[in-house]
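Hi X.,

You mentioned you wanted examples for the new student's onboarding notes, showing what a folding record looks like when two proteins sit in one file. Here is a clean example. The first protein comes first, with its sequence line followed by its structure tokens.
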Amino acid sequence: MLSALLLFVTFAAAGIAAAETTALDEVCGQLGGFYVTPELCASALCSDPSSPCRAARDAPAVAALATKLAARNATATMASVEAALSSSNATEVTKGLQACLELYAGAVAALQWAAASVAAGQYRGAREVLQAAEYVPAGCNGMAVDAAALPRENGAFSYMAMVAHAVVASRIRDY
């Protein structure tokens, strides 16, 4: 009788643990091939306490959330670059920040398109936009005469773009 009770408790505990797994956990747990750990994935997608990241009902909803957050993050980073540009007095720094701003302007437009595409279940094209977006922060770093002039959001965006690309790319089976 005691062994039957222990067996029941063990299965009940396993069922409770399995029920707590979310779509986000499942998606983030499958991104190792893209060099994205589950922790990095969850951290990037759930950094805002008001984010509905754990409420995503399935993998397509996680992909839509990731792409939407990448577009928002790029928009916020672009605003930070604009602010840095407006407070810069050095000509060479200004040139680098202006070029960086142009990169983000293009990325924001493309990421907004990608977010709409992924929300509609269309991953092709969006995957490539997200992959290209991963290189925007490095481009800004390369054009900056003074790396300290770049806002910290530039570096943070690289993680968001990497995670969003991995999530969307994982939705396409024949890559």
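Then the second protein repeats the pattern, sequence line and then tokens:
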Amino acid sequence: MLEGKAMVEDTDMPAKMQAQAMSAASRALDRFDVLDYRSIAAHIKKEFDTIHGPGWQCVVGSSFGCYFTHSKGSFIYFRLESLRFLVFKGTAA
């Protein structure tokens, strides 16, 4: 398991779901090369789709901008090691 500690930047997720997101990110970083952002994001998205139902989105990288609408209680933005992670469940505006 990766040794670094995740730091939450912003969230409206329940604490248990936050822990699941950070654990999923840690497992993905153990499994994939740190520069394979797409595989890392896909791993986290698929895990959340399985646990919490379909419709989850995940963005991973060292620098990115975004603008999105999310379902209440389904958003987290955190950092782990040198990467930033954005996980949310989309919704129609």
